[in-house]
Design goal:
Length: 144
């Protein structure tokens, strides 16, 4: 399972020209689920997402977590994060989890986050347009 975290000043999701979710300062989490991923991985990644110290304070540029700064969180499914790009020029998706399993683990990740913080989401499997203003830029790839 992979989560691409981007520290943002703002982010939003539009579907069919309609805004379906938006946040102010916080994190945009793009989530890819691979075949063989587990609920334990989703829970670990949720904990890491909330606790990773990537926000500034008066002392250091990366010293506070999302919870510390009371930031917002937007989670978007992105199956392309599970792509195999090791051969050729066309990504392969045989390593991605089947849609039903990917959605189940994506929802498990979201529910683990919601235990500590309100979460806004895209729509699993939808054709979404994601907009963001990356702050820094600060981007981290979490894998488990």
């Amino acid at each position: 399972m992979r989560v691409l975290l981007q520290r943002v000043r703002e982010a939003s999701v539009d579907i069919d020209g309609r805004r379906t979710a938006e946040i102010g300062p916080g994190l945009l989490a793009l989530v890819g689920v691979a075949d063989g991923d587990t609920e334990d991985a989703a829970a670990w990644l949720a904990d890491k997402t909330l606790g990773l110290r990537i926000f500034p304070d008066a002392d250091k540029p990366m010293n506070q977590s999302l919870i510390d700064v009371r930031g917002e969180l937007l989670v978007v499914s992105q199956f392309t994060l599970a792509a195999d790009t090791s051969r050729g020029r066309r990504p392969g998706f045989s390593t991605a989890a089947a849609p039903a399993e990917a959605e189940r683990l994506y929802q498990h990740y979201v529910m683990a986050l919601e235990k500590k913080l309100p979460v806004k989401t895209g729509v699993f499997g939808a054709d979404m347009q994601v907009s963001l203003v990356n702050d820094g830029p600060v981007t981290f790839l979490l894998e488990r």
